[in-house]
Specification:
- The complex is a heterodimer.
- By secondary structure, chain A is mainly beta.
- Chain A is built from five helices and 32 strands.
- The longest helix of chain A has 20 residues.
- Chain A starts with a helix and ends with a strand.
- Helix content of chain B is 6%, strand content 46%.
- The chains are: A mainly beta, B mainly beta.
- At the A-B interface, strand 17, strand 25, strand 26, strand 27 and strand 29 of A face helix 1 of B.
Chain lengths: 661, 358
C-alpha cells in the first residue's frame, strides 16, 4: 500500500466515520455492500466499528422500508431476509432465528442497547413498527460478537437516524386494511445543523376478525377468527446535539404499548375464554461520540423496562369466569457501554469496548401465588484488532470476557479474514472461526416451577467461509454472496415437560447447526425502469448430535423442531416515473414438530409459499409530496398455518397514503 | 446483462406464482375394529400444539394403528387428549385443552357428536339413565352431562372463589355404593365424597399433597397415590405417599411415605383380582393390598424411561406402561405379563397418557 493510497483511505475512513456520527446515536455504520458496488470497494479499505472483515453483514435495503411502511418488523424480515420468523398469527407474537439456532440466540439492538427480554432472552418482532425504523442490519453468526456474546445465530441491529438535510419537515401516514385494521403515524423533524429533533407517533388497531376454513373440525366449517384483536400505540423521540463536526450527543426514547387477544386453537370447543396479553415497553438511551486524531470515543447509557401482563380465564358451562392464569412481570435493564477505537498505525485498527449492565426481573402469578425475583449483574470487556497487512488481505481478531453475577465466563474469541482475489475487488473470499457463549435467561434460572439454577451457558464453536462476487456495467450491477457455516453448540438449553406437570429447562449435550446461504442482488436499468432484485436461498441442518440420554435414540441426527431445512425468497422492486411495483415471494420447506422427524407424525407443518405485492405512486400535491400504495398480502389466497392449528388470513389488502411536508 | 436478468429473475418469478399450500392434508381411511379385542391408547400430545392422537393395539394380532381418530374423521383429535371410556358401544374421548369430549362409534371411530363448552375436562363416569359426570381441572366443579343430547345439564360445585388456587379441581371418578369419590390433584390434598343420589359433595377426606390418582381394590377400599408437590410449590412439598381410604368410614387407614422428596411417582392401577397394586415410582412396583410397607424392589426397572401412566387389562391382567420418551417425539407402550415378563413394545403417539380397553 503506497503512501498516497493510505492517505486517501484515511480520508475516506474519516469521512465515513463522521457520516456515521451524522446518522445518529448508533455507532455502527453499515454500508449496503449487498447493494452498491462502490460502497463495497470502499469498505474493504477502511475499518468501521462493529464490522470485521471476513464476517457477514447484510443491510436491509431502504426501498423495502417504503413498501412495508405500515407493517411490523417481523413481516419485513420474513419476506426480505434469510431469518426464519416463527409467528403465532397475524398481529401475534413473532420471534426470529437464523442459522439453525433458537430465538434466544438472536441478539437484538435498538440504537445500541439490547432489547432482548432478560426474562426469556427473546424479542417479539411484531411489537416493532416499521414507522419507527430507519435502518436494519443483520449480523450473521460471529459478526454479532463485535457487540457482545450470546448471538449464536446472529444479531439484528435496529436504528433510527435523523435527516440532517431538512430543517423542518413532517410525514403523515394513514393506512386502512381488511379486518377493520387502521394504522396512523406521524413523524416530525425539526432543528438545524447543530440541534436536531425527530418525534414519531404511531397507533394501530385491528379487529383481526378474518374468515377461515376450520379444517380441525368435522365438516370443516367457515369460521371467523375470534379474540385476535389488537391495539398498538407508540412514541419515539430522538434528539441530537452536534457541537462540532467531530462529536455528537444523542438522546432517544421509544415507548410502546400493545394490547392483544390470544385466539383459541382451531380444535378448541370450550366456551368463550378471556385470553389476553399486554406489553408495555420503555427504552431510552443517551450516547456521546467524539472523533479526534487520538481516536474515537463512545459512551452510552440506556435503560429498558418491559412490563408484561397475561390473563387466562376459562368459562364454565354457566358462563362464569374461572381464573386460570393472571401473571404480571416487570423486567428492568440498565446498560452502560464505553468504547474507544483508533488506527494504531495506518494498517492496524484497534477497538476496545467495556460494558456494565444490570437486569432485574419480578414475575408473579396471582392464581397460584407464585413467582420469582431475579437479578443479574453483567460486565464485559472486548477488544478487536483489525489489520490490513497486505493490500488484498484483511484480518481481524476479537477477544472478550464477561462476568455474570461474579462468575467469570470463558473467553469469547473470533478470528476472521478476507482476501480480495482481483484487483478491482470484485471477487473476495472470506473465512472465520469463533467461540461464543449464550447465558441462560432469568426465566431459565428462576422460573417457578421448573427454573434450573444449575444450567450451564450454551457454548458455541463456529466456522464459516464464503465468497462474494460482483459485476458492474454502466448503471447495472449484480452481486453474489455464498456462505457456508458450521456450529457446534454444547449445553443447548431446551424446556421439556416434567413428569409432575410443569416444564423445566435442561442442557442438551450437543446440537450441530450447519448450512449454506446464497444471496443474489441485481440492480438494473432497462430504459427508464429501475429494477432491483433481491433473492436468497438458505440450507440449514440443525440436528441433535448427542442428547445425553434426554432424547430418544430416534432423535439423534434429526432436524430440530420448527427449523426449516430449506428457505428462501425473492423480492423484485421496479421503479418507473414515480411509480413503484414490488413483488415478494418467500418459502420455507416443511417443518417437523417432533424430535423424531417421524413422517407419520400427527401433523407436520407443510411447505410454506407466500406471495405479496405492492403498487404505488408518488406525486406532488399542494406543493408537497404525496404517496399512495395498495398492498396485497397472500395473493394466492392460501389457506395455511405457520404454527399448528393457528389459522392465518387469506388474501387481504391495505391502502396507504403518505404526505410529506 | 439483461439476458442474465431475464434468466435469473423472470423465470423464477413465474415459477413462484404457481405455488400452492395444502392446508387439508390429514389422510382418511376406514377403521374396522369389529370383533377385535385390544386397547386404545390416548396420546396427550404437546400443550397448545393440538397434536393429540389415538392409537389402537390389537391383543391377538399385535397390530398397531396410530392416528385412529384423524384417520376415521379427517380432523385432528385436539389439544391434550386425556382419557377415554367406552359406554354402550360408544367411545368418549376427553380432550382436556380443547374443552370437549368427542363421542365416536367404538368400532369404526366415526364421529357421532361432541360435548362442548367444558372448561378443562379430565375424566368421565357413566351413572346410567343418560347421566355422566365429567371431572374438571379448573371448573371448581363436576359437569353433569346428558349422554343422549350430549349437552351439559348441570354442575356439582366442588369449590368456590373463596378457596385459593382453583380448588377443588377433580380428577378420577370412582363410584362405590351410593358414593362417588374424586381426588383433587392440582394444588390440593382432598378426596371429595359425592352423593350419587343428590349429586352434591357430602364430605371430604384429607390426604397427602397432590393426590395424583386412585383405584378401588377388591374390598372397596380406595388407594390414593400423592405426588407430594414440588420444590417451590405454593401449596407445599412433602414426600410422595400411598394411602388407603376405607370407603365406608371415609377414614385414611394406611399411609406409607416414599423415602425421598424427589421420588417421581406416577399413577396407580390394580390387577384383575383387585388384590395387588402397580404404581410408578421412578420404576414400576407391585404391592399386595395387605402389605403395610412399600416394596423395596421394583417389578420392572425404569432404565431412564419416562413412565407416564400404567393400566391393567381387566381380562388378561397384562400390564401396559406408557413411556413419554422425551415428550417431543412419539412415545412407547410396553406390554408385560402380570409377573413382570415383557410381551411387546408398541410405538404410539406423542406422550401416551391414558388407556381404554374394549
Amino acid at each position: 500500500m503506497d503512501k498516497g493510497n493510505r492517505s486517501l483511505y484515511k480520508n475516506i475512513a474519516f469521512t465515513f466515520l463522521f457520516w456515521g456520527f451524522a446518522q445518529g446515536g448508533n455507532s455502527q455504520v453499515l454500508f449496503p455492500d449487498t447493494i452498491d458496488l462502490e460502497s463495497v470497494t470502499v469498505s474493504y479499505n477502511r475499518n468501521i466499528s462493529g464490522i470485521r472483515p471476513g464476517t457477514k453483514v447484510k443491510m436491509i435495503d431502504s426501498l423495502i422500508f417504503i413498501e412495508k411502511t405500515n407493517l411490523n418488523l417481523s413481516e419485513l424480515l420474513s419476506e426480505n431476509s434469510p431469518i426464519f420468523i416463527k409467528t403465532y398469527g397475524r398481529g401475534a407474537t413473532a420471534t426470529a432465528s437464523f442459522r439453525g439456532t433458537g430465538a434466544s440466540h438472536t441478539q437484538v439492538l435498538w440504537n445500541g442497547i439490547k432489547i432482548n427480554s432478560p426474562m426469556s432472552g427473546e424479542v417479539d418482532f411484531s411489537l416493532i413498527p416499521i414507522y419507527f425504523v430507519d435502518e436494519v442490519s443483520i449480523h450473521f453468526g460471529q459478526a454479532s460478537m463485535s457487540f457482545g456474546s450470546g448471538g449464536l445465530g446472529g444479531l439484528i441491529n435496529i436504528s433510527s437516524n435523523p435527516d440532517w438535510s431538512k430543517k423542518l419537515g413532517a410525514k403523515l401516514y394513514q393506512s386502512i386494511g381488511n379486518y377493520e385494521t387502521y394504522s396512523s403515524a406521524a413523524s416530525i423533524i425539526y432543528g438545524n445543523s447543530t440541534i436536531k429533533g425527530q418525534t414519531r407517533v404511531f397507533r394501530e388497531i385491528s379487529q383481526n376478525n378474518f374468515a377461515y376454513r376450520n379444517t380441525a373440525k368435522i365438516g370443516k366449517p367457515l369460521e371467523i377468527q375470534e379474540n385476535a384483536d389488537y391495539s398498538k400505540f407508540g412514541i419515539m423521540q430522538d434528539l441530537y446535539y452536534r457541537p462540532s463536526t467531530k462529536s455528537i450527543l444523542s438522546a432517544k426514547l421509544f415507548v410502546h404499548q400493545v394490547d392483544r387477544g390470544i385466539p383459541k386453537l382451531m380444535s378448541n370447543f370450550s366456551n368463550y375464554e378471556t385470553n389476553r396479553q399486554e406489553n408495555q415497553n420503555f427504552n431510552a438511551i443517551i450516547s456521546w461520540q467524539t472523533y479526534s486524531e487520538k481516536g474515537t470515543w463512545r459512551a452510552s447509557s440506556g435503560i429498558s423496562l418491559i412490563k408484561l401482563f397475561y390473563q387466562l380465564n376459562k368459562s364454565s358451562a354457566e358462563g362464569n369466569q374461572l381464573p386460570v392464569i393472571n401473571s404480571h412481570s416487570d423486567a428492568f435493564s440498565w446498560y452502560n457501554k464505553f468504547g474507544y477505537e483508533k488506527n494504531l498505525i495506518s494498517w492496524l485498527f484497534f477497538e476496545i469496548q467495556a460494558e456494565s449492565n444490570i437486569h432485574r426481573v419480578s414475575s408473579y402469578e396471582d392464581v397460584l401465588s407464585s413467582g420469582y425475583n431475579g437479578e443479574q449483574h453483567q460486565m464485559g470487556l472486548r477488544t478487536t484488532l483489525t489489520a490490513n497487512p497486505f493490500k488484498r488481505l484483511s484480518v481481524s481478531i476479537l477477544a472478550g470476557d464477561e462476568v455474570y453475577n461474579a462468575r467469570v465466563t470463558p473467553l469469547i474469541t473470533s478470528l476472521s479474514a478476507e482476501y480480495r482475489f482481483l484487483k478491482d475487488n470484485s471477487l473476495i473470499v472470506k473465512g472465520a472461526v469463533s467461540r461464543n457463549f449464550h447465558q441462560p435467561s432469568l426465566n431459565d434460572l428462576n422460573w417457578q416451577p421448573g427454573g434450573n439454577k444449575n444450567l450451564k451457558p450454551e457454548d458455541g464453536t463456529t466456522w464459516e467461509a464464503g465468497m462474494k462476487y460482483s459485476i458492474s456495467q454502466d448503471q447495472n450491477n449484480i452481486y453474489f454472496d455464498l456462505s457456508i457455516f458450521s456450529s457446534e453448540i454444547s449445553n443447548w438449553i431446551l424446556w421439556l415437560p416434567h413428569i409432575k406437570g410443569y416444564w423445566e429447562p435442561i442442557n442438551l449435550n450437543r446440537v450441530k447447526a450447519r448450512g449454506a446461504e446464497v444471496m443474489l442482488t441485481c440492480n438494473l436499468l432497462i430504459k427508464k425502469v429501475r429494477i432491483k432484485l433481491m433473492s436468497n436461498y438458505n440450507y440449514t441442518r440443525s440436528t441433535i448430535e448427542n442428547a445425553g440420554g434426554i432424547f430418544s435414540s430416534d432423535a439423534h441426527g434429526k432436524q430440530l423442531p420448527f427449523i426449516p431445512v430449506h428457505s428462501g425468497g425473492v423480492a423484485i422492486n421496479t421503479l418507473w416515473n414515480n411509480f413503484h411495483l414490488v413483488y415478494s415471494f418467500s418459502h420455507f420447506s416443511e417443518r417437523f414438530t417432533t424430535t423424531s422427524n417421524n413422517p407419520n407424525s400427527v401433523r407436520r407443518l407443510y411447505p410454506y409459499y407466500m406471495s405479496s405485492a405492492a403498487f404505488g405512486k408518488d406525486f406532488s400535491a399542494f406543493g408537497n409530496t404525496m404517496g399512495i400504495q395498495l398492498r396485497i398480502d397472500n395473493i394466492l389466497n392460501e389457506s395455511y398455518q405457520t404454527i399448528l392449528w393457528r389459522p392465518m388470513p387469506g388474501r387481504n389488502y391495505s391502502f396507504l397514503i403518505r404526505l410529506e411536508i | 446483462m439483461k439476458k442474465i436478468f431475464y434468466k435469473i429473475v423472470v423465470i423464477p418469478a413465474l415459477f413462484c406464482l404457481t405455488s400452492c399450500m395444502n392446508d387439508d392434508i390429514l389422510p382418511v381411511s376406514v377403521i374396522d375394529l369389529y370383533g377385535s379385542r385390544g386397547v386404545f391408547i390416548v396420546n396427550e400430545g404437546n400443550y397448545l400444539y393440538g397434536n393429540s392422537s389415538l392409537t389402537y393395539y390389537d391383543f391377538e394380532t399385535q397390530k398397531v394403528i396410530n392416528n385412529l381418530y384423524s384417520a376415521a374423521n379427517g380432523v385432528p383429535l385436539g389439544d391434550i387428549a386425556y382419557s377415554m371410556q367406552i359406554y354402550q358401544g360408544k367411545g368418549y374421548i376427553v380432550v382436556n385443552n380443547s374443552g370437549c369430549i368427542h363421542v365416536v362409534d367404538a368400532n369404526n371411530l366415526l364421529h357421532l357428536g361432541t360435548i362442548e363448552g367444558l372448561p378443562s375436562p379430565r375424566n368421565i363416569l357413566f351413572l346410567g339413565n343418560n347421566i355422566a359426570l365429567v371431572s374438571d381441572l379448573y371448573a371448581r366443579g363436576i359437569s353433569i352431562v346428558n349422554t343422549n343430547t350430549l349437552e351439559v345439564t348441570g354442575k356439582i360445585n366442588t369449590g368456590g372463589t373463596s378457596l385459593p388456587f382453583y380448588q377443588h379441581p377433580t380428577e378420577n371418578l370412582i363410584k362405590i355404593g351410593g358414593n362417588i369419590f374424586t381426588n383433587c390433584w392440582s394444588f390440593d390434598n382432598k378426596v371429595l365424597v359425592i352423593s350419587a343420589e343428590t349429586l352434591s359433595v357430602i364430605d371430604s377426606i384429607t390426604v397427602g399433597i397432590q393426590p395424583l390418582a386412585m383405584v378401588k381394590d377388591k374390598n372397596n377400599n380406595l388407594w390414593v397415590i400423592n405426588d407430594g408437590g414440588y420444590s417451590g410449590n405454593p401449596f407445599g412439598w412433602e414426600k410422595p405417599s400411598l394411602m388407603m381410604i376405607n370407603s365406608t368410614s371415609l377414614k385414611v387407614e394406611k399411609r406409607m411415605d416414599f423415602s425421598s422428596l424427589n421420588d417421581l411417582v406416577g399413577p396407580i392401577t390394580i390387577n384383575t383380582t383387585g388384590d395387588s397394586l402397580y404404581f410408578i415410582r421412578n420404576h414400576i412396583y407391585k404391592m399386595h393390598i395387605d402389605e403395610s410397607s412399600l416394596p423395596s424392589e421394583p417389578l420392572i426397572l425404569g432404565n431412564g424411561n419416562n413412565f407416564r401412566t400404567l393400566s391393567t387389562d381387566p381380562l388378561s391382567g397384562d400390564l401396559f406402561i406408557a413411556d413419554a420418551v422425551d415428550f417431543l417425539s412419539e412415545g412407547r407402550v410396553y406390554r408385560y405379563k402380570s409377573d413382570g415378563n415383557p410381551v411387546d413394545t408398541i410405538n404410539v403417539g406423542i406422550i401416551p397418557g391414558g388407556f381404554c380397553f374394549n
